[in-house]
Write a structure and sequence with these properties.
3 helices; alpha+beta; about 100 residues; 4 strands; 4-stranded antiparallel β-sheet
């Protein structure tokens, strides 16, 4: 028995659009990675600022990748990435792998 309303989608267009979106980071911009403790009830966070894009979807994608790489939690607040714990060295290593060189 055939499926009457079946529509097959072309995934190749979607993949090319995703790769085009990933390349919209300004990888030459100055990225500031710092450790903070103030105002977080004694907990240490790693703050990553100046990623060179205003696109929240790209930032969320990068946040997900960096959280998996570091093995920690994190959030996106005001176009800045906050990671739980002291993850400065791991985040630098990850960003260099992704092609960001001005750290």
């Amino acid at each position: 028995m055939g499926k009457k309303n079946w529509i097959e989608f072309d995934n190749h267009k979607k993949n090319s659009e995703e790769t085009a979106k990933e390349d919209t980071f300004d990888k030459r911009s100055k990225i500031n990675i710092s450790k903070q403790k103030k105002g977080k009830k004694g907990k240490t966070i790693t703050l990553i600022r100046g990623l060179g894009t205003e696109d929240e979807i790209l930032l969320k994608g990068l946040l997900k990748k960096i959280k998996v790489f570091c093995g920690t939690g994190g959030t996106l607040i005001d176009k800045n990435i906050q990671l739980q714990g002291d993850m400065v060295s791991k985040s630098i290593e990850f960003l260099r792998k992704e092609g960001f060189h001005n750290l």
